[in-house]
Amino acid sequence: MKILGIIHTHPRGFGFVTPDNPDECSGTIFIPAQYTEGAVQGDHVEVELADKPMKPERGPEGKVLRVLERGRSQITGVIVDKADKNQFILYSPLLGPEKDIFVTGKKLAIGQRVTVKITNWDDLTGKVETILGTMDDPKLDVKCAILEYELDPTFPPKAVEEAKSFGKTVDNIKDRVDFTNWEIITIDPETARDFDDALSLTIDEKKHFHLGVHIADVSHYVRPGTTLDAIASKRCNSTYFPGTCLPMIPEELSNELCSLKEGVVRLTSTVLMEFTPDGTLINYEIVKGAIKSQKRFTYEEAKRVLDGEETSQHQPLLKNMVTLCELLKGKRRERGSVDLSLPETVMKVDKAGKPIGFRVVQYDITHQLVEEFMLKANEMVATHLSKTVPSSVYRVHQAPTPEDQKSFFDLARLLGFKLSKEPTVQEIQELFEKAKTTPHAQQLSISFIKSMKLAMYSPDNVGHFGLSLEHYTHFTSPIRRYPDLVIHRLLFEKPDPKTSLEKICLCCSDAERASSKAENRVLHLKKLRYLLELEETSKTEPIYDASITNILHFGFTFDITDFGMEGLIRLAELPHYYNYDAKRQLLQTDSGHKRLCLGDKIKVKVDGINLPAAEVFWKLI
Fold it and tell me: Could you say which of 255, 408, 432, 621 would form a disulfide bridge with 193 (CB–CB 3.0 to 4.6 Å)?
């Protein structure tokens, strides 16, 4: 069977094709690296489906027969070498390290960041159109990522004009539930400017919890048929870089009229939920509302109040929220959801884009309570829509295969955790509970997440494996995610039969992947720049703690704990000869005196950094 679609390529060579007609094939089609036929990101291709995929559990598989139309004629990259008198070699993150592009142009030099018009895709030759600058300029990191992944950095004047037309204040809350006198707060990162969600909680005489999840009513301003909606539906999400952001909607809305700021009236779509003293949901209501947030907490500030380090009139509210949070976490564990707590690395940059430091944000109880309440609101909205509309947008997550999870199970066993031959969800839960008191908790969490399939948007409600939910959607972040905006419309408006939810889901899933790649690309570059600065300025050679995450026949991979980075050291780079033992997942010298095992804690140092290719080379201490 032959199918037409758009290919999305990975730097390692393989790709996925999104079918033009979703009815012809469910989901995306995996294309092995040897069958891409030179197709690159965004190309329109013809694919032949494989009768017998190499890995059926991965879904449909195929090979590219031909490229029907190139998705782009221009790419961005770095000149890394000189081929001959007239040609230079370009490295493009989009095409990966395996493909050299030969380019010509005036005043070219190694280290320049350029845009190139491809003149011959078969030979991968092109002509430099623009010299953007050099790799030495960190301010270009974001600009180049925007060009590489074809993100849109500006809004058309019409969209900005529409956003400004609403003014700066809310003047009319007629026909809405008035929550403006309620005790309502927001809890967000210190650097946040777009406050999507606010929370309220009361306890009645029966000890029942009454939780309010108040979400910015973006749908009131961004209407179908407007330029604002056209742009939002194209962008599909906001993209966040260190120190800056590409918002989905203009800042006049995202950071102002839609942002649930402290002390000002804002319009909301609100989910009101009632829970028994043991955390069982017994009633809910979804309404249009208006709020006036009484306090804008940062996560750190809320934690200090909870710990008694600061005083606040909202301390009783926060403590009650912690109580309900723990009850909901317990309910989630009962149904089989795995609790993962991973710290986040936040990179700080100066105005020139230079990294000046980073901090590791721990996933503490304040983060957990916000997440639990958002999860519950998303679940209830999805459940409600599954009963009230013919079709909706769901956030779906398929179960991993045993093959997907093999590395995770191997790691857990090697670290001393007991698991059956085919571990159940309950066993995995118990594993993570036990791991909390060991040095291996973060390492196991990272390995488990890597074993999971990617979540995506779909009109087909196949459930969410990671959360162990039959119904789940995204409702709580309409400022930065288009699917949430669509959900708000489905809740309160008659569905437009002309709207293709299938296309919206595909577009949003694709845009999410592109944004994630761009964000990761920039963050990785900033980390490398920071490492390079440390190497050049430290009086003593920096040494880093790491954990071995995979044993391979040619080397081993490891996670740099403090940086959230993965590294690779090849066998040829080790001072001794090591034999590969696949069965026991270890590397061992002939004498047996030296071993490298899955899960081992090691120390490494930087052995070189190649900024143009975004590579760092490590040496085992």
Answer: 255
Determine contact, residues 63/30, Cβ cutoff 8 Å: no
Average pLDDT over residues 363-381: 97
| HSE-CB for 526 with a 13 A CA cutoff | 29
Q: Which fold has domain 75-136?
A: OB fold (Dihydrolipoamide Acetyltransferase, E2P) (2.40.50)
Sign of CA dihedral 85, 91, 94, 95: positive
The confidence score (pLDDT) of residue 41 equals 83
Domains 2-69 and 75-136 share a fold: yes
The domain spans of the chain are 2-69, 75-136, 157-399+453-524, 402-447, 538-620
Give 282's Cβ-side CA count (13 Å radius).
Answer: 10
pLDDT category at 478 given cuts 50, 70, 90 is: very high
pTM greater than 0.70 (yes/no) = yes
Looking only at the bridges linking them, the beta strands covering 295-298 and 185-188 are: parallel
φ/ψ of 45, rounded to 5, equals -130, 160
How far apart CA 587 and CA 570 sit, in angstroms, is 11
Read off the tokens for 251.
């800042």
Residue indicated by tokens 């905006």: 485
Mean pLDDT estimate for the chain: 93
Show the DSSP H helices in 355-462 as ranges: 365-388, 402-414, 425-435, 441-450
